[in-house]
Design a protein that fits this description.
Length: about 140
């Protein structure tokens, strides 16, 4: 899934940022394969300096997979931290992950946090102290 943030009025201290979310599950945008689904907002607009919570849930055919489930939110900027061992290194910056060993992009710091429980299909996350540099598309 992907979010794009857009600064509406960069000269104003009350400028807003828009975040666009696109879902990528099972090798495609909003995959139609049975058993895979992702539900979240397509775009979010917020004021700079505030926080936002993005609700998100997903399903996948659990009978086809075993082992621990890791989820990632990635900013499509082709810089920063890539997903450890499974993601193309130029895919963008990891801003939130359920994998504790995953390095997080420096601009995201502790501001991006998963709030949902991936084992229950909850991929919700929040962003604190929204900044102009957070503008862009984000993928799940």
């Amino acid at each position: 899934m992907s979010f794009t943030w857009e600064v509406k009025n960069p000269a104003s201290s009350m400028a807003t940022v828009t975040l666009l979310i696109l879902a990528f599950l099972c090798k495609g945008l909003r995959s139609q394969k049975p058993g895979y689904d992702l539900n979240t907002l397509k775009a979010v607009t917020m004021q700079r300096g505030l926080c936002v919570h993005i609700p998100c849930n997903f399903t996948y055919p659990t009978s086809q997979y075993s082992g621990e489930l890791y989820i990632y939110w990635i900013k499509d900027d082709s810089a920063g931290s890539s997903i450890h061992n499974i993601w193309h290194p130029n895919a963008g910056s990891v801003v939130a992950s359920s994998y504790k060993g995953q390095s997080i992009a420096s601009f995201a710091g502790n501001r991006f946090q998963l709030t949902g429980n991936p084992s229950e299909g909850d991929c919700s996350f929040s962003i604190n102290d929204v900044k102009f540099e957070d503008e862009g598309q984000y993928y799940f």
